[in-house]
Design goal:
The complex is a heterodimer of chains A (311) and B (406).
Chain A (H helix, E strand, L loop, with lengths): L1 H20 L2 H31 L6 H17 L7 H19 L9 H23 L12 E4 L4 E4 H23 L1 H11 L1 H6 L4 H26 L7 H15 L4 H22 L4 H27 L1
Antiparallel strand pairs in A: 1-2
Helix pairs in contact in A: 2-6, 2-9, 2-10, 2-11, 3-4, 3-5, 3-9, 3-10, 4-9, 6-7, 6-9, 7-9, 10-11, 10-12, 11-12
Chain B lengths: L1 H19 L5 E9 L6 H20 L3 E3 L2 E11 L4 H13 L5 E3 L4 H14 L3 E3 L15 E3 L9 H9 L12 E7 L2 H17 L2 E8 L7 H10 L3 E5 L1 H14 L6 E4 L2 H4 L1 H5 L7 E4 L8 E2 L3 E2 H12 L5 H20 L4 H9 L2 E4 L2 E4 L12 E6 L2 E6 L18
Parallel strand pairs in B: 1-3, 1-4, 4-5, 5-6, 7-8, 7-9, 9-10, 10-11
Antiparallel strand pairs in B: 2-3, 11-16, 12-13, 14-15, 16-17
Helix pairs in contact in B: 2-12, 3-4, 5-6, 12-13
Classes of the chains: A mainly alpha (311), B alpha/beta (406).
Chain lengths: 311, 406
C-alpha cells in the first residue's frame, strides 16, 4: 500500500506537467471520457426510471448491459453487422425484463428497498453464471469494422465506432424522452411514478406499467450493452462497473431528470479518465467512489442549510 | 458430452485389454480437483485433457514399472467449481476419504494456493502444471512441484529482446523507456515484479507504471499517457481481458510503440478476434509446438500437438501440454523411487532431471522448475511465430514494429 502511495506522489506532478505542456492530451482524455460517459448515462437513465417509478434499486443493471453485449457478439459471429444488434438487443432485453418482472420483481415492488436490492443482486449473480455457462468466461467483442479518425493533425484519435455509439446513445435518450412525454404508456408510467395509488384509482393498470417500466429499463441497458461490445469488450463479469456508475450518476443527478443524468454521465466519464491519467489507472474506480462520497456530503450540507433557512 | 463419451469408451477399451491380459495389473491412482464448471471451465478442461492424454499414453506403453511390479495409472477427478475453498475441501477428501497418495494440480495459482497446505499437511506429493504465482514457492512447501515457469519469468524474454534490439531502435539499452500496464491481481503483479527486476538488471527506465483494475475494459487513460511519453517498450498483463482490451485500443487509438509485449494473447485469441490489429504483438507463452524438445513417450513437441489434435480436434494450448508433462514427471519419479511410499516419491521428485516434449524439468529446493525458459511469440501474418529466446527462434522478431501512423 505504501509503495502505491509513494508511486502516486512521484508520478502525479509529472503527469500533471504533460497536461500543462501538451494541452492537446486533455482533449483526448475528455473526448474518450465523453464517449464512454454517454453509455454510462444510458444505463443510469434506466436505473433512474426503475428507481423513480417502482422504488427499486436494480443491482442487475450491469448484467442487462452485459446480456445486450452478448446479443451483439452473436450477431457479429454470424456475420451480421453488430450495429443491427442495437435495436434487436433492446427488443430481446425488453422481453427478458418483462419476464423477470413477471417471475420475480412483481413480488418486491411494494416491499422494503433492502429486499429489492437483495433480489436484484440475486438476479445479477444468476445472469453472470448463466452467461459463463453458455459463452464461457472469456472476453468477447463484436467487431464493427469501422476505422479511426484523426483530429488536430493526428494528436487526437477517435475511433468511429465510439463516435457512432455516442450518437446512438444520445438519440436513444431522445427517443426515450419523447416516448415518456407523448405516448399513452409513457404518460401512465409518469402518472404511476407521481402517485401509484391515484393512478390505480384513475384506471391505470399499475402492474402492467411496472412490467413495461422494468422491461424498458432492460431494453435501454441492452442497447447500451450492444454499443459496449462494439466499442470495448465484454465478459460475463463486466456488469458491476456499470451498476456502480449508474448508481453514482443517479445519486448525483436525481430521479426524473434526463438532462441531469446525461450531464452527470458524460461528466463522470471525462472526470474519471482525467483521474486515471493523473493518478494512474488503479485509482480510476476509487476516484468514482470518492466523488460519490463528496457529492453525498455536499448534498447533506446543502439540505441542512435549507432547513435552517426555513426555520 | 461427446468428449465424456469418448473418454469412457477409451476407459472401457483399456479395461477390456487389462481384463484379457494373463496378468491383471495393479493400478496407482492420482487425485485431481480441476475446474469443470465456473470461470475456469475452459482452462480446467485443457488441464484435464492434458492429464488424460498422458495417462492414456503411459498405460498403452505398458504402464509404470515400480520396483519389480508394473502399474497402470488412473486419475480420480473432482470438480472444484473454480472456487479455492471447494478445491481445498476436495483435496482433503481425495486424501483422507479416497486414500489417494499423489495429487495432480488444479488450474490456476489461486486454486493451487488453496490446495498446497492440505497436501503439505498429509505429506502427499503434488505435481502441478497451472499455478505460476511466485508466492507458491516462498512458503517453504516441501511436497509441491511445478513443471511450468513461474510468473515473474513471463515477460523476461521480451525485456531481453528489447535490450538486444536497442541498436535497431537507435538507442543504448539504458536509454530504453518502458511503460507498464498490469492488472491489480496476484498473478499479474508477479509478472510485473519480474519485469521491474529485468528493467533494473538491464538498466532501463520505467516511465509509466499503471495498475489496471480487475473490471477494466477501457485503457484509454493509460494509452493516452503512452502516446504522450512515447516509451520504447509497452508491456501489458491482465489475463485474457487485458490482452483483448489492449490490442483493440492500441490499434484504435493508433498508439505507436516499437515493442509491445503481453501475456495471454493466445487465450484471448487476439489473432482470430482482431486480425490485422494484432499484428506484431509479442506474446509470452509457456510452450510452443514448434520447439525442439523430445521425449520417449510422446516424441517431439510437434508429435504431441498432432496427437492432441487428432484426439480432441483442436490445437493444444500450453495449459494442456504442461498438464501432460506433470503426469510424466510423476511416472518418472515412481520409477526412480522404486516404491509408492509418498515420502520416497517426494525425494525422487525433488531429484527430477529430465526432458519432456514440453521442456526440461528440474526443480530447485522450492519446487519450481528452473530448467525451462518462457518463449516469446510474435504475431506475424496472422500466425504465432517463436522469436525468442534466440535458441528456439523460428524467425527474427520484427522490431521496431511498423508505425500505424497518421
Amino acid at each position: 500500500m505504501n509503495e502505491f502511495f509513494a508511486q502516486l506522489v512521484a508520478s502525479l506532478p509529472s503527469n500533471l506537467r504533460i497536461l500543462v505542456e501538451a494541452p492537446i492530451f486533455n482533449v483526448q482524455l475528455i473526448l474518450d471520457g465523453l464517449l464512454i460517459g454517454a453509455i454510462f448515462a444510458l444505463a443510469a437513465y434506466g436505473m433512474a426510471l426503475v428507481w423513480g417509478v417502482m422504488k427499486i434499486i436494480n443491482i442487475a443493471q450491469g448484467e442487462f448491459v452485459m446480456l445486450g453485449g452478448y446479443v451483439a457478439v452473436i450477431f457479429a459471429q454470424n456475420g451480421i453487422h453488430p450495429l443491427l444488434a442495437v435495436p434487436v438487443s433492446g427488443a430481446v432485453l425488453f422481453l427478458v425484463g418483462w419476464l423477470l418482472y413477471r417471475a420475480v420483481i412483481f413480488r418486491i415492488v411494494e416491499e422494503d428497498l433492502f429486499v429489492s436490492i437483495l433480489a436484484t443482486f440475486g438476479i445479477s449473480i444468476l445472469l453472470q453464471q448463466l452467461m459463463n455457462q453458455v459463452f464461457g468466461g472469456d472476453v468477447q467483442i463484436a467487431d464493427a469494422g469501422l476505422g479511426t479518425r484523426f483530429l488536430f493533425s493526428g494528436f487526437v484519435t477517435v475511433s468511429d465506432v465510439k463516435l457512432v455509439s455516442f450518437v446512438l446513445a444520445l438519440a436513444l435518450g431522445g427517443v426515450l424522452v419523447a416516448f415518456l412525454r407523448n405516448s399513452r404508456l409513457g404518460q401512465s408510467i409518469r402518472a404511476t411514478a407521481q402517485n401509484a395509488r391515484a393512478a390505480r384509482v384513475l384506471g391505470i393498470d399499475t402492474g402492467r406499467v411496472y412490467a413495461a417500466t422494468y422491461g424498458l429499463n432492460a431494453a435501454i441497458c441492452g442497447s447500451a450493452g450492444a454499443l459496449v461490445a462494439m466499442a470495448y469488450t465484454i465478459h460475463p463479469y463486466i456488469g458491476l462497473p456499470y451498476t456502480v456508475r449508474s448508481f453514482m450518476i443517479v445519486v448525483v443527478a436525481g430521479l426524473g431528470n434526463l438532462a441531469g443524468v446525461i450531464a452527470a454521465g458524460i461528466g463522470l466519464g471525462a472526470a474519471e479518465n482525467m483521474a486515471g491519467f493523473l493518478l494512474g489507472a488503479q485509482y480510476q474506480l476509487a476516484f468514482v467512489f470518492g466523488l460519490l462520497v463528496v457529492v453525498l456530503l455536499w448534498r447533506n450540507w446543502r439540505l441542512k442549510r435549507k432547513r435552517q433557512y426555513l426555520k | 458430452m461427446k468428449y465424456l463419451l469418448k473418454s469412457s469408451l477409451v476407459a472401457a477399451a483399456a479395461l477390456a485389454v487389462a481384463g484379457t491380459g494373463a496378468l491383471a495389473q495393479e493400478t496407482v491412482t492420482l487425485g485431481a480437483a480441476v475446474s469443470l464448471t465456473g470461470k475456469y471451465t475452459t482452462d480446467g478442461e485443457h488441464t484435464k485433457r492434458g492429464y488424460d492424454l498422458a495417462v492414456d499414453m503411459i498405460n498403452k506403453a505398458g504402464g509404470v514399472k515400480v520396483g519389480d511390479k508394473t502399474y497402470q495409472i488412473a486419475v480420480k477427478y473432482y470438480d472444484d467449481e473454480s472456487t479455492p475453498a471447494t478445491g481445498a475441501a476436495l483435496a482433503e477428501r481425495l486424501i483422507a476419504q479416497d486414500g489417494v497418495k499423489f495429487l495432480l494440480g488444479p488450474y490456476s495459482s489461486g486454486l493451487t494456493k488453496a490446495i498446497a497446505p492440505v497436501t503439505e499437511k498429509y505429506g502427499v506429493p503434488m505435481v502441478e502444471a497451472n499455478g505460476a504465482s511466485r508466492s507458491l514457492f516462498t512458503s517453504g512447501y516441501k511436497y509441491l512441484f511445478a513443471v511450468l515457469s513461474t510468473s515473474e519469468q513471463y515477460l523476461s524474454s521480451a525485456m531481453d529482446l528489447a535490450a538486444e534490439k536497442a541498436a535497431a531502435l537507435g538507442k543504448k539499452p539504458e536509454e530504453i523507456k518502458v511503460a507498464l500496464a498490469f492488472e491489480n491481481d496476484p498473478f499479474s503483479q508477479d509478472v510485473r515484479a519480474g519485469v521491474l527486476d529485468d528493467a533494473k538488471r538491464l538498466g532501463m527506465q520505467i516511465v509509466i507504471d499503471d495498475q489496471l483494475p480487475k473490471e477494466l475494459n477501457d485503457m484509454a487513460a493509460t494509452l493516452t499517457k503512452v502516446r504522450a511519453l512515447k516509451p520504447d517498450v509497452l508491456v501489458i498483463s491482465g489475463h485474457a481481458k487485458g490482452a483483448a482490451t489492449a490490442v483493440r485500443q492500441i490499434s484504435e487509438m493508433k498508439v505507436d510503440v516499437p515493442i509491445v509485449a503481453m501475456t495471454h494473447c493466445d487465450s484471448a485469441d487476439v489473432v482470430a478476434k482482431f486480425g490485422a490489429a494484432a499484428e506484431y504483438t509479442l506474446c509470452a507463452s509457456q510452450w510452443a509446438s514448434t520447439l525442439t524438445y523430445k521425449d520417449n513417450l510422446f516424441g517431439s513437441a510437434a508429435d504431441f500437438a498432432k496427437l492432441f489434435n487428432t484426439t480432441y480436434n483442436y490445437e493444444p494450448p500450453y495449459q494442456a501440454a504442461e498438464s501432460a508433462a506433470a503426469v510424466m514427471v510423476f511416472a518418472d519419479a515412481f520409477q526412480r523411487a522404486g516404491t509408492l511410499d509418498p515420502a520416497k516419491v517426494r525425494d525422487a521428485l525433488a531429484a527430477t532431471d529430465m526432458q519432456t516434449f514440453y521442456g526440461n524439468v528440474k526443480f530447485d529446493e522450492t519446487g519450481k522448475n528452473i530448467a525451462k525458459p518462457m518463449v516469446l511469440f510474435q504475431v506475424l501474418k496472422g500466425e504465432y511465430r517463436v522469436v525468442a529466446p534466440t535458441k528456439w527462434a523460428e524467425t527474427e522478431a520484427v522490431v521496431p514494429r511498423p508505425m500505424m501512423g497518421n
